[in-house]
Specification:
The chain is α+β, with helices and mostly antiparallel strands and about 230 residues long. The protein is about 20% helix and about 30% strand. Strand 10, helix 2 and strand 11 form a beta-alpha-beta unit. The longest helix has 21 residues. The radius of gyration is 17 Å and the shape is globular.
């Protein structure tokens, strides 16, 4: 992979790097945040998901019609090729990463990539009935320069998801997301004397900032309906 520095969009995290690689004859980009020590993250990503200390986040673009059945192994290989070591979070999307949206609010920041060709409501028709048959992906990466409890990290994912749905509806999409949406929220590892925030709902200090940042980032990343 080759890399250049992308515009700084993640408060408290180093500026993301813009990586490029050639895969199956295609030139594909990725965004990499090299967080280093001192960060706890929560994510539903196939690589590095769950809650724990993580040192990096990789959001990699893949070709439309992606057919590999080992995305965790694929992402691990991309991380290794980028020289990453230790635990991190790996996400992937067929959306155009160059068209990502970014926003900040009071120290909270978010970056979103949005592929919405296949979308729907969370409570979709049962298997075998009419409905989407191929994935699309909205990925959200957010950072808070504050320490959050485990419960607050879970709360932050809920808040970010609610803000994403709000952006979708306001943009004219009749859906709650896509079948493969992913999110990663990074918060500081608490040190002695740090305030540990135990709430991250949309009316808490950091939850409100997170919601506004995610809402604007997703709104910026979404294509106009019908495009």
């Amino acid at each position: 992979m080759t890399s250049v520095v992308a515009p700084s969009t993640a408060a408290g995290l180093p500026a993301p790097r813009w990586l490029t690689r050639t895969e199956d004859g295609l030139r594909l980009p990725a965004l990499l945040w090299h967080a280093g020590p001192g960060w706890r993250m929560i994510s539903n990503a196939v690589l590095g998901g769950g809650i724990g200390e993580r040192g990096w986040i990789l959001n990699a673009q893949v070709a439309h019609g992606y057919r590999r059945t080992d995305p965790e192994r694929h992402l691990a290989g991309l991380a290794d090729a980028a020289g990453l070591h230790g635990p991190g979070v790996g996400l992937m999307t067929a959306a155009d990463i160059a068209a990502h949206g970014s926003a900040g609010d009071g120290g909270a920041t978010a970056v979103a990539t949005a592929g919405v060709r296949v979308r729907g409501w969370a409570a979709s028709p049962a298997a075998g009935t009419t409905g989407p048959n191929a994935p699309g992906t909205i990925n959200v990466v957010a950072a808070l320069p504050a320490a959050l409890s485990d419960a607050a990290l879970v709360n932050a994912v809920v808040t970010a998801t609610e803000a994403k749905v709000q952006a979708l509806l306001e943009a004219g999409y009749d859906c709650s997301g896509t079948p493969t949406d992913a999110v990663c929220v990074a918060a500081r590892t608490p040190d002695a004397g740090d305030e540990l925030h135990t709430f991250a709902g949309p009316r808490s200090l950091w939850g409100a900032r997170l919601a506004r940042a995610v809402h604007r980032a997703v709104s910026e990343a979404l294509p106009t309906p019908g495009e």
